[in-house]
Specification:
Length: 181
């Protein structure tokens, strides 16, 4: 697998998302195994539009919260088991990396230059989030994404941009996202 953008965690996943001809979420398809190898050329990713990196950050930010929710509820993960301590640790590392490096990485992406922050965020968007969600689970943020695919006016948003709507108002509380509670 040779991804040229870091807009989702799909490159590291055995999960494929299937959509209808109208662009609506249809179902998940779990492939027999994950890719044997994922090689990311950060120079190529740095050359992509910064909006794609931002979408990946939106997708990856959900990983920690969804894995934690699945762990607390005992939900079955995408891999078919229970959330492990390792999955939670990777999901939390993903979150911490994005919080610590995300702004610097976005500045680098806007200038199309490779920096240590950009490389760490690319790793978080693809690997940490990919392993984190498969071994941790999906919850509200991805359910919101799936529902938004039924809205034609939302089709121009990338996957991670739709997932990120959860961060604005988690679980419909009327309050803005405020951290790790």
């Amino acid at each position: 697998m040779l991804p040229t953008i870091a807009s989702t965690d799909a490159p590291c996943s055995a999960l494929s998302v299937l959509y209808t001809d109208d662009g609506e979420f249809d179902r998940y398809l779990m492939l027999p195994h994950n890719p044997n190898m994922v090689i990311v050329d950060t120079k190529i990713v740095a050359g992509a539009p910064a909006r794609l990196l931002a979408a990946g950050i939106g997708d990856a930010l959900a990983t920690w919260f969804e894995a934690r929710a699945c762990s607390r509820s005992g939900a079955t993960t995408m891999a078919g088991g229970q959330c492990t301590q390792a999955a939670l640790a990777l999901a939390e590392l993903c979150y911490n990396t994005l919080i610590e490096e995300g702004e610097k990485a976005m500045l680098a992406a806007e200038q199309h230059v490779v920096t240590p922050a950009l490389e760490r965020v690319i790793e978080a968007n693809t690997y940490l989030s990919g392993v984190g969600f498969e071994s941790g689970g999906l919850a509200a943020a991805h359910a919101i994404h799936n529902g938004m695919t039924a809205i034609p006016d939302a089709h121009h948003y990338y996957h991670g941009e739709k997932v990120a709507f959860w961060h604005v108002d988690p679980v419909g509380t009327g309050k803005r996202f405020s951290g790790r509670n």
